[in-house]
Design brief:
Blueprint: H1 7-39, H2 50-59, H3 61-86, H4 89-95, H5 100-123, H6 125-141, E1 145-148, E2 152-157, E3 160-172, E4 175-188, E5 194-206, E6 209-220, E7 225-235, H7 241-245, H8 256-268, H9 274-284, H10 286-297, H11 310-338, H12 342-363
Antiparallel strand pairs: 1-2, 2-3, 3-4, 4-5, 5-6, 6-7
Helix pairs in contact: 1-2, 1-3, 1-5, 2-6, 3-5, 3-6, 3-10, 3-11, 5-10, 8-9, 10-12, 11-12
Length: 365
């Protein structure tokens, strides 16, 4: 037996996708306006202009679309089915013998297709746009620092050019610590010739002071090179940590592959990688969260068939979505406190909601 969409599936799909697109656009516009307003506080810093702000905000659109999509899917699906209920089309679909689950299936097909696009966006355009936005912000606020995709963070400190392949932020003893990995310091003489190369496995900024670890110095002469190695040493640099932080992508803005590499690096160095693990598993459970959120909220649209206004049903659906998001955050916090596997914290809410939805659709045909 071949499964193919029926006429009623296209009816539901068209109603849900049109409402989803409108809701998504409204949420995205609000998000961009707020981001633009936040960046206005930085105007005037080392030539950071309105043009920089506009380019920064535009570059973050793919990432913001990914972030706003679950909320848009929830509200859009409720509005789409609500519009069908208002014109008695849901009543007609129920009258011809279609179950609630069969009606919702048409909506879920469209939402699943858009979710797949968002998953691809999170691994391609999202991180690329975020890296571009970081580069725009840093180049506008500081002429000494830039971000180059594929080659890490570049900065200039006097006659020394600095390259770090990656960087992370962490909380250590209640204080923010910036850590740079695979650091190279190129020191040039007045004639533009490389006179000294310093390589460090990592660098830490703690309390405003930099420290290099696993350091190798190579001093170049006219016809010689001298190599020295030390376990650690202070690094007298004028790099401002608060500016450097902008060049380090937050875990939720990184690709799954980069997150996995950072988690592996942090584990090997005995660094707490909870935030990166949480972001990693959130990426994997993103499609399941969208499906669970919409599937559990869609029954609120059917309340219009019996009693009450749809505005009340929509409100209850949105409240359910907020409770679901709070439950996700609560589970993540509990995982951090009690130190159980992060993937369990991300898996529990959608699985519980999907089980509840299954019971609902089994009892109410």
């Amino acid at each position: 037996m071949r499964l193919r969409p029926k006429l009623h599936d296209w009816l539901v799909l068209r109603a849900v996708l049109s409402s989803l697109a409108l809701t998504w656009a409204v949420l995205l516009i609000f998000d961009l306006v707020i981001a633009f307003a936040d960046q206005l506080d930085s105007l005037g810093q080392s030539g950071y202009s309105t043009g920089h702000v506009l380019l920064y905000v535009l570059a973050t659109i793919p990432r913001r679309a990914y972030t706003d999509f679950p909320t848009a899917a929830l509200i859009g699906s409720l509005l789409g089915l609500g519009s069908l209920a208002a014109t008695s089309e849901l009543t007609a679909l129920r009258a011809i013998g279609l179950s609630r689950w069969r009606i919702c299936l048409g909506a879920l097909i469209g939402i699943a297709a858009v979710t797949a696009v968002m998953v691809i966006d999170a691994e391609t355009l999202g991180p690329l746009g975020e890296a571009t936005a970081e580069s725009i912000a840093i180049s506008g606020k500081s002429s000494n620092i830039t971000v180059a995709r594929g080659s890490g963070l570049w900065a200039r400190d006097g006659e020394v050019y600095i390259n770090a392949r990656s960087g992370v932020q962490k909380i250590k003893h209640g204080e923010r610590v910036i850590e740079l990995a695979n650091l190279r310091l190129y020191q040039f003489g007045g004639n533009g010739i490389l006179v000294r190369l310093t390589q460090a496995k990592r660098a830490e900024n703690h309390g405003g002071d930099w420290t290099l670890f696993d350091v190798t110095h190579t001093q170049f002469g006219e016809r010689s090179a001298k190599v020295d190695a030390v376990a650690s040493e202070p690094w007298n640099s004028k790099l401002r940590p608060e500016v450097l932080v902008a060049g380090i992508s937050a875990p939720r803005y990184q690709t799954a592959a980069v997150l996995a590499d950072n988690i592996d690096y942090m584990r090997r160095n005995g660094v707490d990688s909870f935030d990166y693990q949480s972001a990693y598993w959130a990426r994997w459970f993103y499609p399941l969260n969208v499906l669970a959120l919409c599937l559990a909220a869609l029954p609120f649209a059917f309340g219009q068939l019996r009693s009450g206004g749809f505005g009340k049903r929509l409100f209850l659906g949105i409240v359910f979505g907020l409770v679901y998001l709070l439950m996700q955050q609560l589970m993540t916090k509990l995982a951090d406190i009690y130190r159980f596997d992060v993937w369990m914290a991300h898996a529990a809410p959608p699985i519980l909601v999907l089980l509840a939805s299954r019971l609902y659709f089994r009892r109410r045909v």
